[in-house]
User: Fold this.
Amino acid sequence: DAGVTQSPTHLIKTRGQQVTLRCSPKSGHDTVSWYQQALGQGPQFIFQYYEEEERQRGNFPDRFSGHQFPNYSSELNVNALLLGDSALYLCASSFGGPRDQPQHFGDGTRLSIL
Amino acid sequence: GESVGLHLPTLSVQEGDNSIINCAYSNSASDYFIWYKQESGKGPQFIIDIRSNMDKRQGQRVTVLLNKTVKHLSLQIAATQPGDSAVYFCAENRKGNTPLVFGKGTRLSVIA
Assistant:
């Protein structure tokens, strides 16, 4: 039973560039949430996708966008990268849309901005 | 949600002792709570959850206690093992369609 998988595991970009991160949810899950985790901090919610639509959004600028595909996988796109975007980006999956339930996390993509 | 600074609170325990990790949550409307364990280089791993209509829930070697009066959550780990060394986060989910909010992390260090 495959868990949540994310790619790539590490990525280095420079300021102003754009990046796309990918996530495949745990088998049987249809809801994907993205989080940003800065060093030494807890994960901060970016947004959640369910039925191919953004259902919830945290306090992140429009530079952060996403997409969910019919197979439930998801992408996180960040435009005009800033140094402060350096973080671990985590994907979490669950079932049935936004509701109170455990979310299962992948091991993240470590994004470094130079 | 709250965020923790670069220096996480640390709890050091001897192998075999019981550990208690505490968490204060901010919103009285929260009705669902989760504990996650995060090892170095890994994503958060689900440990146990509890709903607000309960005040205690037990899993394998772990117990979560919820005190709604003082908005406090705790995770008890019995017979702590070296493999329990990690950062532990509590997370809360408020009524309705609201995102999961993570609290401050606590680093558990098990001394062999």
User: Anything to note?
Assistant: The longest strand of chain A covers residues 87-94. The mean pLDDT of chain A is 94.
